[in-house]
Each structure stands twice: as C-alpha cells, then as structure tokens.
Amino acid sequence: MAADGAAAAGPTPFERLGGEGPVRALVDRFYDLMDLEPQFAALRALHPQELSGSRDKLFWFLCGWLGGPDHYIERFGHPMLRARHMPYAIGLAERDQWMACMLLAMQEEAVDPGLAERLTRAFFGTADWMRNR
C-alpha cells in the first residue's frame, strides 16, 4: 500500500479487494453512509451538496493508494492530501467520523478481516495526518 511507504510481497491491497469494482463499491458505501447516517453529520457538512465529484476523487485516489492504477495522479498530479484538505476544519471529531464511516463501509462490503485491519491502520495514519484543528 502506498501509505505504508514500502512495497509488500504478494498481492496488493487493490488486488486483495478485487480491483476497481470492489473499490468503487467501498467508496460508494462510504459516501452513502456519510450522507444517510446522523452520526456522520459533521463529516457530511465538510462536503459539497452533490457528492459525485467527491466519490470519484476518493475512488481514483484509493485505486492508486491501494496499489492499483494511478487514476488520481493521471488526472490531477500528486495528491498533496494535506494541502488539499487544509481549507476544511478537520479535528479529532471529523477524523473519528471519517474512520467510523470507513470502518462501517468495510464491514458492510465484507472486506477480509485481515485486510480490513491493515487498511484501518493505514487509513487512521492518513486521517490523523489530515487534522489541522
């Protein structure tokens, strides 16, 4: 996984998830939950009313971050995640809501428990790095 900083032997997380279809399903479930569940209201408030652009950007980013095609970089260049998120107030509550939403999405999409554990650690590191408040 790109977030780990080192290539691991064996299939990539992208391959272990099953490729683009399951990554898209995970992203879509994440945004569906964020849009529907009251416990994610503060996280939802940081996003535009129409979520299709956000869905696409996270999907494109995760494909590459998980070791698959670099769709995001091909479209926008380096992700510069922290800089791109700086205009949004992201504190502990927003980080924790993002993580809770993604954990629920992984659970509902039946991500392999071992892979989900690895992804949870990597997601947490990235989500915590996004904090700016």
Summarize the structure.
The chain has helices at residues 13-17, 20-36, 41-45, 52-65, 71-76, 81-85, 92-108, 113-129. The protein is mainly alpha-helical and 133 residues long.
Describe this structure in words.
- Helix content is 65%, strand content 0%.
- With 133 residues, the chain is mostly helical.
- It has a single domain (18-129), classed as Globin-like, CATH 1.10.490.
- Helix 2 crosses helix 4.
- The longest helix has 17 residues, at 20-36.
- The model has no long low-confidence stretch (mean pLDDT 93).
- Supply the CATH superfamily name: Globins
SSE sequence, one letter per element = HHHHHHHH
Contiguous uncertain segments of 5+ residues: none
Q: How many individual β-strands?
A: 0
Strand content: under 5%
List keywords for this structure.
8 helices; Globin-like; 133 residues; mainly alpha; single chain
Please describe the topology of this protein:
Blueprint: H1 13-17, H2 20-36, H3 41-45, H4 52-65, H5 71-76, H6 81-85, H7 92-108, H8 113-129
